[in-house]
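Q: What does the predicted 3D structure of BURP domain protein USPL1 isoform X1 look like?
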Amino acid sequence: MERMSRISRTPNKVREMGLGLTSCALLLHLYLVMCAKGSESKQIRSEDNNIIIQLPGSNVNPHKKSDAIHFPQLGMVHKFDPQGHTDNHHHPSISHMDHKMDPSAMRFFTIEDMFVGKKMPLYFHRTDPSNSPHFLPRDEADSIPFSSKQLPDLLRRFAFYPDSSQAKSMERSLRQCEAEPMEGETNFCATSLESMLDYNRGVFGLNTPFRLVTTIYFSHTDVSFQNYTILEAPKQILATKMVACHSLPYPYAVFYCHSQKSENKVYKVLIGGDNGERMEAVAVCHMDTSQWSRDHASFRVLGIERGTSPVCHFFPADNLIWVPALASI
């Protein structure tokens, strides 16, 4: 219990004293503060003054609570959502439950569906930023075992019963992180912001700046599953490489990040829900699915076979897409 208490207190120390995070994480925290104050600053620089991250502008309404800032992990943590999800193309049994009963599988579509006026039933995973797990400093995250073999010790550390939903979610997340990537793919589970940035630099190159693209909700709703209509022509982000990072259910922030050598197309799409909600959603279309599992949920939802058609899906707001900073729309 003391361990959980110390993890929960870490963000307070950061806010009050600026301690516990390396320069990148602290600068990101300062960026969020500047966003809340309306600053136009959008860059994080390394110690040699080179831009390493180009952050998107904020559409936060200063007069009301918004989901438009997408690093809630820097806030307090008291619990985690055991229902989190991710996309694992090679191991569908890990990342997808029974899609016939679970509306969360309804997030796939084809590239031919990307036109104005197209209406689709879509699921967007919703999280409460005030209760979302935060990133730990790298030294603290590295000091905690991260292996399914050590799950019993981890459950005792975080005071979870072995048969609890949290325990089962932790096991699924650990096994997802231990799964081998498919051919032409690299993957990595980031347990700290610093490790995520290191992985990105390994993909894009040490001297290539990169920026973050995320889905932005323009209004708040508790509705996760409804019909959405494409309101404007999708805008493609011309990126030669991309890294997708999916949040995983865990007591502290963990992201499953992966990058593929095969062609992927990234889009920003303005969509509107039947309930009046509007969002600028990030969509990724995987142009080559020939290496995916034959049992991947997307093939069942779309009624296609692997390798026969590109598969597209939207990203919820707590998932991150990294692209080269010079990628244009």
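A (community wiki): The structure tokens above were generated from the sequence. The first helix runs from residue 2 to 17. Confidence is low (pLDDT under 50) at residues 1-79, 90-101.
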